[in-house]
Amino acid sequence: MTAESTALLRTPEGVTALESASEIAGGDPLAAASALRARGVPPELAAAALTQVDLRRRAVAKFGADAASMFFTRAGLEQATRAVVAGRRARRLAAAGVRTLADLGCGLGSDALAAAREGISVYAVDADPETAAVAAANVAALGLGDLVTVECADATSVEVERYDAVFADPARRKAGRGRVFDPRSYSPPWDFIAALPERVPRTVLKLAPGIDHDLLPPGAEGEWVSVDGDLVEAAFWCGPLAEVPRRASLIQVSREKSVKGEQLTGTGAAKAPVGPTGAFLYDPDPAVVRSHLVAELAELIGGRLADPEIAYLYTDVAVGTPFARRLEVTDVLPFSLKRLRALLRERGVGRLEIRKRGSALEPEQLRKDLRLGGPNAASLVLTRVSGAPTALLCKAI
Ligand SMILES: C[S@@+](CC[C@H](N)C(=O)[O-])C[C@H]1O[C@@H](n2cnc3c(N)ncnc32)[C@H](O)[C@@H]1O
């Protein structure tokens, strides 16, 4: 998509081409393109409309019903905040009294649109002309033109001090192997991003979930967010927006599209007690692990670690929690392929779910080596207990 093709799709001919494309799309792309051309749609417009219809279809997972009227680029859709996550953030900003917001690097506008829906006036910029054009098209498509102004500009040129709050979701090139954080991979540059809280105390930064806790500005809140068990982002809430040192936010989007949320908060510095394994094992949600709130979860469920370095918790009685998957342990054995194979054969296990933390074993290779067979299902956890490689066989969940 180019800025020109987005403009073309917004003309009356473009709207008609999009309608025809959504009727035709779904099968063979070449056949769809010639069917559109047969209806008198010029080739360039036909290609743009078919691409857009395909992107809208993919975007439903992030944007729900709004996707049908929005505009996307492939990269913009990939980087966009899911609407449920952007909506939560916007509600929190509005509740904190934010009325005007600068969105620096707005992408196709997910966060800006969510803020506007909470009544916040947004000045959104993106350095990429094509992306800025798409963001502007989305503002118009969702009828939020009174609240959002989009400009193609470099974030570093914005007079951020004019706004109640600033939001930045910098673009990142993929860091090389083993490198968790590379400031050079950020655009706008990390130095600019990191200095924002000094210029505008109410700053929110959206960052990759692997971000180092040491990069949190003093006094800021670090929030890690998961959606349906997938870790999706970290957010640093700075200045007066910080409410707690660390927060894990778990969002569940049910099939009926109702959204539920659970939050765990704490210091991120506490240590969980360490003891023996137990009858129940808890595999914490990745947001809990990344926000360093395993000790808080341990306290909540009366649990313990069996290895100080590994984030599996254990209890002797079953405790319900939304913050972890619970498994019922049937056998604990020092890891040995031979013993494990014999045990699984004895139990008639043909279907095995394998989880691991602190084990270098490759689950798929192990599955082959175990030569499974039988009518039963089970879960296997590969981990360490007091430093020793250990296998825990659990009832299937
Ligand atoms: C991760 S995306 C933002 C996604 C957005 N929050 C959303 O949900 O749609 C980052 C955006 O920053 C833009 N960007 C990168 N460097 C920039 C700069 N110096 N000034 C303005 N925008 C920039 C990129 O073009 C990209 O669209």
From TrEMBL:
It comes from the Bacteria. PANTHER family: S-ADENOSYLMETHIONINE-DEPENDENT METHYLTRANSFERASE RELATED, TRIMETHYLGUANOSINE SYNTHASE. It comes from Paractinoplanes deccanensis. It holds the Pfam family Methyltransf_25. This is Methyltransferase. Residues 103-168 form the Methyltransferase domain. Residues 324-395 form the THUMP-like domain. One of its GO terms (biological process) is methylation. InterPro entries: Methyltransf_25 (IPR041698), SAM-dependent_MTases_sf (IPR029063), Thump-like (IPR041497). Keywords: Methyltransferase, Transferase. GO terms for molecular function: methyltransferase activity.
